[in-house]
Amino acid sequence: MKLSIIVPVYNMARDKKLEFCMDSLIGQNLSDFEIIAVDDCSTDNSLVILKDYESRFPDKVKVIHSEVNKHQGGAKNIGIREACGEWIGFIDADDWIDPDMYRQMLEKAEATGADMVGCDLTLVSEHTYEVSDDIERNGSKKLCGALDHEKKKQLLLDGGRLVVKIYKRATILENKLFFPENIFYEDNAMSNSYLLTANHYEYIDKPWYYYYQHEASTVHSFSEKMCRDRMEAGRIMLSEARRLGFISEFRPEIEFIFTQLFYVNTLFTYMPCVKPAKLSFVKELTDEMMETFPDFEKNSYYVERLNQEEKRLIHMACGSPLLFYIYYKLLWGYRNLRKRLGNK
């Protein structure tokens, strides 16, 4: 079999999200593929919907029900172990793809000898096949071809999301590229491992992946637990780099990616979004960052890529978490007040 498409599913029955995703997969202009839909212990009608697809398309759809909720990482691992395809693709159950996406990716792989192929992504807020103005580039032509040190460096920094690519199943199994279970941000934990174990990458600059942004999605809901999961994803990303032997070769890049994932994104999500924000959390986060990479503020990517306000606030937090905490609360309160007054 040529391709296995793995779909982790948890409570996606509402607003026909799951049907839109599954229809886009069934409608692929490709014959030799399977869809492995893993129901992660859904409490809504998702499993019933999936079983209906399996009954109508028995040669294409395989449904697996997990008795235990393992989050998306656990569901993906189940799918990887069940997959028969030479290639594997992942898709979130509330997203969908262009009918030609996988066919053209596979053709590109066969024509070039690539073992990883990617495309672009368009962010949308309604169920449509119209490409929005908000397109996320997930590569560049400069990264195509056999992956040397310089290309892998750029892939780490600008390679984009895991779901917009296909991967050789043999590479995944040989390198044990399984996802962490029972946490959010499993893709962030493993995307570097998928990128660095590839030998030849090809990129198609077409926005074939439709990334659905809605109020119930992970990016619109935050809690301390999710912030801690992001921290754990950073730790796993770092341990994976050590396990696979990439930490010394790509230390500046990995340091910067860890800094963004573990510290910057967590800090600036936690402070405005988690109620009540605790000084103890900020101190714990900052202490671990300083212990892991004490000189991260000197990293050249950090200096070049972070904006001045973020760097100023982070420098304050590293010097005194208490001062940062008080200053940030006052700053955020002032900006919110100005916003409210401006809307009157």
Q: How many structural domains can be distinguished in the coordinates? A: 2
Query: What name does the CATH topology of the largest domain carry?
Result: Spore Coat Polysaccharide Biosynthesis Protein SpsA, Chain A
Number of helices: 13
By CATH, the superfamily of the largest domain comes out as Spore Coat Polysaccharide Biosynthesis Protein SpsA, Chain A
Please give a structural write-up.
This protein is α/β, with parallel strands linked by helices. It folds into two domains: 3-219, Spore Coat Polysaccharide Biosynthesis Protein SpsA, Chain A; 222-342, no CATH class. It is 49% helix and 16% strand. It has 13 helices and ten strands. The chain has helices spanning 17-26, 46-56, 71-82, 101-112, 149-158, 169-174, 186-196, 224-243, 251-273, 279-292, 300-305, 308-319, 321-342, and strands at residues 3-9, 33-39, 61-65, 87-90, 96-97, 116-124, 135-136, 145-146, 165-168, 200-212. Strands 1, 2, 3, 4, 5, 6, 7, 8, 9 and 10 form a ten-stranded mixed sheet that branches. Helix 12 runs antiparallel to helix 13. The chain is globular and about 60 Å long. The mean pLDDT is 95.
